[in-house]
């Protein structure tokens, strides 16, 4: 099961963290993986490192928040390889600042990168998938959409909207051979959360809420992604798969 040989997978935000673990896992299942981030040189090195592990990988640098640049890069990829079977829309940014001081520009920047640009690129790729009558689209949501945490209004609003988006798109594209789902990670050890790793007060807060009493690892998300990306999960669509060590189940 879950053999992805011959498939092409584009993973945004895959120079490190969850995206890199996801791309590695898809590559190990046989997919050709296309890595994305903003630093082209770093991406080339990461793609080369994956190739050394026997994974078919290539780099496609673009900024997800620059929609013309992103869609042009995807068009070039399609011209080169002919198709995208799996799209993991994973890149995301955060800005932490209390509600009463955060600037409108920062609110809009985070909302644009985490929602509007993902809608635009996802729609662009969905148009191609409709023509091939097959596709797997997965967005990265977040447990913050269920929690309410201070200082990240725009981030939480965008992630909540992505959870709604997958339900909407799954209905609209139901007969196109495409499934659309989201993964809502709990607290995962990546650069995004680095400042919290050694924060004893935060760790105590977290372990009080996570029954497994541990941080998630990027590979925990990658396994869920492989399932949603596989042909075998074709009846699973419009879902938000929460991967959080039981955190939100036990709130
Ligand atoms: P990291 O900060 O470790 O990685 C983010 C990745 O996104 C990097 O590869 C980065 O590369 C890329 N990226 C950032 N901005 C852009 C952009 N504008 N255009 C293209 N690429 C971009 O984060 P995580 O791996 O932790 O996060 C991945 C996703 O998971 C995000 O959507 C995040 O919100 C979500 N998430 C994470 C959780 C966690 O606990 N870690 C919990 C819930 C959700 P570069 O900087 O080189 O562009």
Automatic annotation (TrEMBL):
PROSITE patterns: ADH_SHORT (PS00061). Residues 7-186 form the Ketoreductase domain. It holds the Pfam family adh_short_C2. One of its GO terms (molecular function) is oxidoreductase activity. Keywords: Oxidoreductase. InterPro entries: KR_dom, NAD(P)-bd_dom_sf, Sc_DH/Rdtase_CS, SDR_fam. Gene3D superfamilies: NAD(P)-binding Rossmann-like Domain. SMART domains: PKS_KR (SM00822). Belongs to the short-chain dehydrogenases/reductases (SDR) family. PANTHER family: 5-KETO-D-GLUCONATE 5-REDUCTASE, OXIDOREDUCTASE. This is SDR family oxidoreductase.
């Amino acid at each position: 099961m879950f053999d992805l040989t011959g498939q092409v997978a584009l993973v945004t935000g895959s120079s490190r963290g969850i995206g890199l673990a996801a791309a590695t896992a898809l590559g190990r299942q046989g997919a050709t993986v296309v890595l994305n981030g903003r630093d082209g040189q770093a991406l080339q090195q990461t793609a080369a490192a994956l190739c050394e592990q026997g994974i078919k990988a290539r780099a496609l640098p673009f900024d997800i928040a620059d929609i013309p640049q992103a869609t042009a890069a995807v068009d070039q990829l399609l011209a080169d390889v002919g198709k995208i079977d799996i799209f993991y829309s994973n890149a995301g940014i955060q800005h932490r600042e209390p509600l009463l001081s955060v600037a409108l520009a920062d609110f809009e920047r985070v909302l644009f990168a985490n929602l509007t640009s993902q809608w635009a690129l996802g729609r662009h790729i969905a148009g191609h998938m409709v023509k091939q009558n097959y596709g797997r689209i997965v967005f990265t949501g977040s447990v913050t959409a269920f929690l309410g945490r201070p200082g990240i209004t725009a981030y939480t609003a965008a992630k909540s909207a992505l959870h709604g988006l997958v339900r909407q798109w799954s209905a609209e594209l139901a007969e196109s051979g495409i499934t659309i789902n989201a993964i809502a990670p709990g607290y995962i050890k990546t650069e995004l959360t680095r400042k919290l790793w050694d924060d004893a007060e935060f760790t105590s807060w977290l372990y009080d809420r996570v029954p497994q009493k541990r941080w998630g690892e990027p590979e925990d998300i990658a396994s869920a992604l492989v399932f949603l990306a596989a042909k075998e999960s074709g009846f699973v669509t419009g879902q938000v798969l929460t991967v959080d060590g039981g955190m939100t189940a036990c709130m």
